[in-house]
């Protein structure tokens, strides 16, 4: 969902995009897009990243229960970026690692859905591991807490708010949301500006 929309956003901005996917036949057909079939767990996966100006990792296991596979896949992409000497890698994480209060992360509140906990917790651990790495220039973006939790919007306004470590809310004080298209805009902006080096940040729709 996010990866395909980011491909479209970057291609429409004139960037030459290599879209790596398990099913490249589903990748957007665009003059600026090259679709590549690859498995992130292959030993030579890093070769797909050589020469890239930046990498966006929107790795997904296809479900929320396999935290171990998420960890293996996400770490494989980061390791490959480091081996390929990629200048910047932006990892798309989840909202679970955001704080709802000092010292309390969203993934640890009692109301957090048990069905998505394994991958949400794995994404939190990935962020912690990234903070200890000095061999790769990373950034970690968290969608807002309500992202893709209900009806999904693909409307592109080109506008969004930027936050840091805490869950963002809307003007009514409820967890904020953002359209998939505007999430892609925020990701593309960060890739272009490299604005959050070795930092986690979050975004949400404008009120």
Which structural category fits the helices and strands?
A: alpha/beta
Beta content? 15-25%
**End-to-end C-alpha gap:** 23 Å
Parts with pLDDT < 50 across at least 5 consecutive residues? none
Architecture in CATH? 3-Layer(aba) Sandwich
CATH class annotation:
Alpha Beta
For the largest beta-sheet, the strand count, sense and barrel status come to: 5 strands, mixed
Query: Quick one: overall form?
Result: globular
CATH topology: Rossmann fold
Give the helix proportion (percent range). 25-40%
Mean pLDDT: 94
Q: Count every helix, treating DSSP H or I runs of 4 or more residues as helices.
A: 4
Radius of gyration over C-alpha positions, nearest whole angstrom: 16 Å
CATH superfamily: NAD(P)-binding Rossmann-like Domain
Task: Describe this entry's structure for a reader.
- With 207 residues, this protein is an alpha/beta fold.
- The protein has a single domain, classed as 3-Layer(aba) Sandwich (Rossmann fold), CATH 3.40.50.720.
- 27% of the residues lie in helices and 17% in strands.
- The protein has four helices and nine strands; from the N terminus they run αβββαβββαββαβ.
- The strands form three sheets. Strands 3-4-7-9-8 form a five-stranded mixed beta sheet, with helices on both faces. A two-stranded parallel ribbon has the order 1-2.
- Strand 5 and strand 6 (104-105) form a beta hairpin.
- The two termini are 23 Å apart.
